[in-house]
Amino acid sequence: MNLSSIIDNKLMVHDYEFIIKDWLLDAEISINSKDTYEYAVRRYIKYLQEKDITSTRNTVIEFKNEMINSYSNSTAYILLSGVKSFYRYLARKYSIQDVAKDVKLPKIPRGFKKDCLTVEQVSQLLNSLNENTLAQLRDKAMINLFIRCGLRCCEIINANIEDIGTKDGQKVLYIKGKGHTEKDDFVVLTTDMLRILDKYLVKRKEYIDKSPLFASVSNRSYGKRLDSSTVRAICKRYFKNIGINTPRVSTHSLRHTAITLSILAGAGIIDVRDFARHTDINTSLRYIHNLQRLENAPELKIDEFLKKNSSKEKDEIIS
């Protein structure tokens, strides 16, 4: 296949795979955005193929409207951003008309209600966790599972010791995902995560496989499953220990943090969706948009602009 359907006859000799790869190398796209933008352009090409139409400004608008009807505005925003970036590249590289230039991006809702931790805060939090007592070992294992595996609070609470198993030679923790009736999903337990869990379980008194993974260690309620209010209180205490005391940071912030870290570490959008166990990819795309908003913040560009222009004014006064 060539790109004659998406552009014009000038590029019929080029294979579209080559052009997409060259665009991703040539365009000023952050590493975190490349997978998403590539997905967007391939989705647009597929749209053109299914409709058997050529690409015009009206086609881009129709694609935008279909994406808004099929997905959330956040997803439609990012998909259209990828298409617009691709056309900017085609216009610059091959002098092709940028038919997406004047197509407005969809309006998107504000971000998450809870903040995620910065990389520095994650480091502070993990370094603040001790191993002197059973309670500390339990808390360290629990918080690490939040951060390293992106678990929800309900998944932490419902986990049993028997849920730690092996899948295709890899240690995993089987979980009952949101809206599921069975523990038919899993998260991968890395060597470091297993080491932390093993220390905690070795320290525990006698237990059976069906025992809750995270249980009370007090004398009065030893072995009983932790509830959500107790988990929240434990996490809040550790947050305060490193100077975080805001209602915008909660146990769910740790899940947000895990998903954000996976993107920063280079995971592709499909892998992020699977890791986070999102039923719709648009939920995963919201995290990427938030990172892009911060990475390309106009506020930072304004600061830089003002600093440069202020320096010019001073130089003119001196001269």
Radius of gyration: 25 Å
Total beta strand runs: 3
Morphology: elongated
Helix-strand pattern, N to C? HHHHHHHEEEHHHHHH
Q: Which percent band covers the strand fraction?
A: under 5%
User: Order of strands in the sheet with the most strands?
Assistant: 1-2-3
Number of helices, where a helix is a run of at least 4 consecutive DSSP H or I residues = 13
In CATH, what is the homologous superfamily of the largest domain?
Answer: Intergrase catalytic core
Q: Just give the CATH class of the largest domain.
A: Mainly Alpha
Helical content class? 55-70%
Q: Just name the CATH architecture of the largest domain.
A: Orthogonal Bundle
Describe this protein's structure.
The protein has helices at residues 16-26, 31-51, 57-70, 73-94, 119-127, 134-149, 153-158, 191-203, 228-241, 251-264, 269-276, 281-295, 298-318, and strands at 164-167, 170-175, 185-188. The protein is built from 13 helices and three strands. A hairpin with a 2-residue loop joins strand 1 and strand 2 (170-175). It is elongated and about 75 Å long. The protein folds into two domains: 9-94, DNA polymerase, domain 1; 119-265, hpI Integrase, Chain A.
Q: What is this structure's SSE topology?
A:
Blueprint: H1 16-26, H2 31-51, H3 57-70, H4 73-94, H5 119-127, H6 134-149, H7 153-158, E1 164-167, E2 170-175, E3 185-188, H8 191-203, H9 228-241, H10 251-264, H11 269-276, H12 281-295, H13 298-318
Antiparallel strand pairs: 1-2, 2-3
Helix pairs in contact: 2-4, 3-4, 4-12, 6-8, 6-10, 10-11, 10-12, 11-12
